[in-house]
Amino acid sequence: MTTRQSAVVGGTLGLLLSGLALMLLWFGVAGVLMVGRNNLMYFLWPSSLMLTVTWGRTLNGVMTTIAAVALNVLMYGTIGILLQKGIRFSLWKSD
Predict the structure, then answer these.
(1) How far apart are the C-alpha atoms of 85 and 7, rounded to whole Å?
(2) Which of 1, 69, 89, 92 could, after both became Cys, cross-link 18 (CB 3.0–4.6 A)?
(3) What is the pTM (predicted TM-score) of this model?
């Protein structure tokens, strides 16, 4: 897997997770992401803390939501690249 492919897969995963969380928020059932006292939305999408109450209704809310999704895509893309480089390095060291 190339570095570009790793970044695309990670970014796509970040976009899907953000979309899932926004869909659950839209329908008002984001509580299904609670496991015990932990909210998985903040674990899977840390920048969701930036969202305001009007995340889908006002220009400021929509722009903040777009920025939060973009940050999540960048974060997951970077994680994908780091995982790919780390696995490649560990396999190179084992030879």
Answers:
(1) 11
(2) 69
(3) 0.85
Compute the distance between CA of residue 95 and CA of residue 89 in angstroms, rounded to an integer. Answer: 10
Mean predicted confidence (pLDDT) in 46-51: 88
Angle at 13 between CA 17 and CA 59, to 5 degrees: 50
- Quick one: how many helices (H) and strands (E) in the chain? 3, 2
> How many Cα atoms sit within 13 Å of 42 on the Cβ side?
8
**The predicted structure's pLDDT at residue 61:** 92
List the structure tokens of 16. Answer: 């899907």
Domain locations in the chain as residue ranges:
3-89
As a whole number of Å, the CA-based R_g of the chain is 16
